[in-house]
Amino acid sequence: MRGASEKRDKENQRPMATAQATVPTDEDAADVVQQEDVMSAGNRNADEAVSDALLEKLRTHAAKPQEAGDAFRAVLAKIHARVTSSDRRVRERALEKLWQKNSGAMESFIVALENCKDHVADCSIAGILHECISPRASRSKSKKKGSKNKSATRTSSRMAVIQLVNLGITQVLVKLLINLQHADTITNEMLTQDILCILGQVAQRDQKFASKMKLLNSVKVFHALLRQHYNNNKILLPLLLIIKTLAKNPFSLQTLVRDGITGTLEKTFISVGYAPHLKLRTLIECLKHFTTNKLCCNKLVKVGIVHLLMRIFERWERFDGPMRLKICNYALNTLQHLCVIKAGRKAIKSNNGLQLLYRFCTNCPEDKAYDCLLSRICGIINQCLEKKELPVPEMSPARFVLPEANVRANSAESGSDIDSQANSMASAGRLYSDLDSGDDEEEEEGSHDSRNAIDNAIYMSDEVDEGKFFAGVFTSQRSEEDLVGYHTFFRELGGLRSQLRLAGSSAVKLTELGFIEDEQADSQSVKTGKSRTPPKDLTRVNGTTKQQLVTNDRHRLKILEDASGELTDQEAYCAVASRVRSVIGFVKVAYPDWTGGDGCGKAEPLNTKDRKVCRAKLLTCVERGFHSSAVQEVVYDLDALVGPACRQGRDARLLDNCDEKRIGKRVLDTKQLQFESRFESGNLRKAIQIGLREYDLILTPDVNSGSRHQWFYFEVSNMEANAPYTFNIVNCEKANSQFNFGMKPILFSVTEAKYGRPGWVRTGVDICYYRNCYQRPARGKTYLTTSFTVTFPHAHDVCYLAYHFPYTYSQLMTDIWKWRKKCANASVYFRAETLCETLNGNENPVLTITSPDSRGNPIHARKVIFLTSRVHPGESNASWVMHGTLKALLNDNQYACSLRDDYVFKIVPMLNIEGVVNGCNRYGLTNEDLNRRWSNPNQVYHPVIYHTKGLMEYCAKVLQRPPHVFVDYHGHSRRKNVFLFGCSRSGSWSAADRTKPDQPVQYLMLPHLMQKTSAAFALPLCSFKVERNKESTARVAVWRQLGVARSYTMESSFCGCDQGALAGLHLDTEHLKAIGRDFCRALSMMKYSGDDWAVEKSAMRPAIISEEIRRRSRPCGNSIAEKSRGLNSYIYDVDRRRSRPAARECAFCETTPQGRPRNVFRINTLCITPRRSHSDRDSRRVIASQRIPTEEHIPEESRCMDDRVSTSSESDESEYEI
């Protein structure tokens, strides 16, 4: 009665009153919502009681639904009615109850689906689960509350999907779906629709969905459903979502292609149409994944998919909204994949594709979001144009005849594993890129076949027999008898008998070895800090004679024999450089290297990219592809300058530099720039003038190679002052570059140096990196261009341009010459000797640094630290960091003395001398990556790697003292900042590793301390994952084979920093050397931390505690940090309840102004995520402290970051090529 009267009252209201009543204010809406909540509070208990009763009956009947019969159906019908109720409050409360994990509802539904044979009941369960994971949108009268409810509902539904996946819903639903295919009723059709809707959501959350489909042999079932329902709007979208997930898996992809899915996709495309909506986007995303398969590309071209894709670009102007951008992006990805095959390129051209895409370029909106599309379109056009090759031979003009060997280590003939075969000399670098170094972040620019090989290898990784794999990797383990010859490089420990006695080794029989040593002489040489000639009886290592391992009198560095102590630094450099053996003859020494090669020492900001300029250069590149430039004149040609007689060695003559005499003098017969690169580490193959002041430059590939172009270093002269010159390096290979994210090339002016302002400076404007039209041989893709414009300040100057600050082999040997003179006293034990000779006969130095022996601090009680650098010759920043480390270790300050007192440093500062000398970027003389040879190096082809590893093996196996720390210095071309890669068992690909207990303290301590000491270091970028294809790198091989827990790769950016005090700045040589010094500080702090760090699990997250960096019992001695310029750490002052910078006066004690000890502790946070995948977002929080502070005592700036994966600022722009 009351309801009827209210209805009549509303009908009798005047129109004005009705109109006013229908437009409530925000305050009225809020009041209404509040009243509804109050009114509903009374019904909540009743609803919960009903829900609890229904769930209790559900749990009772779920195990045996057949016995319950109609009662079970009734319970399900009531639950389904509640979750689909038109009453919002009833529906939301019912869903909230089902979402609760402790309710057990989801588990009961899955058990019922497994046991129930009644399709009507199954239909109810599927409908309920569908509502749980895709709830209806609730309409709230309050906008704010509505948005909050919507967000909460989405979160709950996502958690419900994850809960279902964990409970095994995938297998249950797929089995039920297969059974439904044998009957055709209305109930089955509804049940199939609900099951597919659920699986469409589950497939996106279940990381093992494709593997489960393979085990259930049900991949083809979904293709059959798509073939049957390609025009059914109700189930098409979930089917496409499932197909998209399957297409990401190589096995499922191949199965679907063989099953003829290409024709089905074409019919689906026609049915879906061209209007921008979710179905079209998902379908084209499926095509993007399918076209990663070469066979599928051919089939899609035959069914006419290119024509359909082109129609998208015919009509794209009619579309609007963000969906249009995503559809175009996926379509271009698909076309990029189709361009790899000849039929795909032909189809694009025959369907008027080039004209349509070029029109898209010219009419492309100015929004930044379209820059990526523009870059991809230009790449497609360049690939589809007539084949245009570089005007140079494919192979490098630098060719070296390799010595013969019976069987190559890690070759296919030696029976090695898949990864080793992939890294053999014939295919080095084709399949895998090095995530620990400069080639890391992008997928290797290889053919489609290579990409498929990688996918298949990754897919097969779970099925690898680990025993066979490791047996294939480690094929030549060396015995103690083989390693004993390395004892001469440990003369600081005494003679061979003394070393074996200290090690307690009983495996080596001294009488059988026949070595005669004068232990007294060895001991005396170590005490006085002087070296002596090693025994002449030792002429055998590993059972062979005349090895490249240097023995007896050849330990001395012969290259320094001409550099007497009376020479100036420049004279010594010329004397050393003249004895360097190169593949191509040199004509001079470069002026920057001759004068020291440092940067200018100024803070130089990163470049700000001009998007309009980059767009213009892209379009100009495309236009040149259509119409070749009229002006093309070769002004420098290395192939013509290098005759066959000069390719192998050169006559011995004194190299010099006369650039100062050349400045100000013009070449009379031409206004063209003059180029030269025939000097150490130089790299320029050809220069072609294409405009008045524009030049295309072609880089030289690595020796005996046809690829690996990145490093450049050349001289340019005969320029006009204040005139812009544009340089286009047209044969770059990497998919992206830091030149797109702020990096500038460097310039050295001889005139500026003569005026007293020497040093490299960052230079260039209009810098961009984009794909061009030059075809890469046998790769199916085109090269990329680095373009920049330089304005020279002086007319007729002699200048040098380089990718990064060069550091040559001659510079290293000259620095060793200087350090040896400096350390002639007995306060530092410094020994530089020849470890071995390279393939071309250059000496490879190994350095030993420690304090002289003493009774109070004997050398044999010290731990050994191994440092290596420059295995990739193009990573010159690694040498500058090593330079800083060496200078810090040879310093006289307190922390350097303390380091030498506690450790023996064995350092191989340049692992790839031949690559550095000959201007290579990645390889040496063997056309292979030496950082893929550590698991099984070849004695003939990889002598430096072989003997460097031999030194560490001697420590671990003969001396029974594995290195305490091993760090391999690298440079990184795709990331900013400085960071470490380490090894952890928990992050290993090997199941055997993961079963062993991990010790995070060991590998987390040094990164934490680096964050404390170095402003350029970025902890969130550190990774401790061990991947299968990295087993042969130095970091992993030393960790696994020698048991060195603290085995790292230290990466330094070529560009600069995007965090910390150096954010927005390039890294200069001073910064790089400071990183080396900061590393030494971290080592000095690590020794005070000791091994007493413990992992304590708190309620929130694990924390590493109990760091003893400051030992109060140790006397101050007036500062470790007198010359360290302060540590970048914070000390929290409990007395004052605030944080303050760490005191610079002393690193070990803190006192108040009144002189009493202050209650302080150091606070640092570490947020490290092992890089498994983007979905794996668990992180570790590490707090190093003497005492555990409470949360409110931790300064805000020192608190841990949220649990998320931190990536570089350009991580989202990895495919952005403008």
UniProtKB/TrEMBL annotation:
InterPro entries to which the protein is assigned, alphabetical: ARM-like, ARM-type_fold, Cytosolic_carboxypeptidase, Pepdidase_M14_N, Peptidase_M14
Positions of the Peptidase M14 domain: 805-1087
Cofactors demanded by this protein: Zn(2+)
Stretches assigned to coiled coil: none
Domain of life: Eukaryota
PROSITE patterns (alphabetical): PEPTIDASE_M14
Pfam families with a match to the protein in the record: Pepdidase_M14_N, Peptidase_M14, TPR_CCP1_N
Annotated segments matching region Disordered: 1-29, 431-453, 521-540, 1174-1218
A GO biological-process term: proteolysis
PANTHER family assigned: CYTOSOLIC CARBOXYPEPTIDASE (PTHR12756), CYTOSOLIC CARBOXYPEPTIDASE 1 (PTHR12756:SF11)
Stated name of the protein: tubulin-glutamate carboxypeptidase
Organism field: Dinoponera quadriceps (South American ant)
Gene encoding the protein: LOC106747587
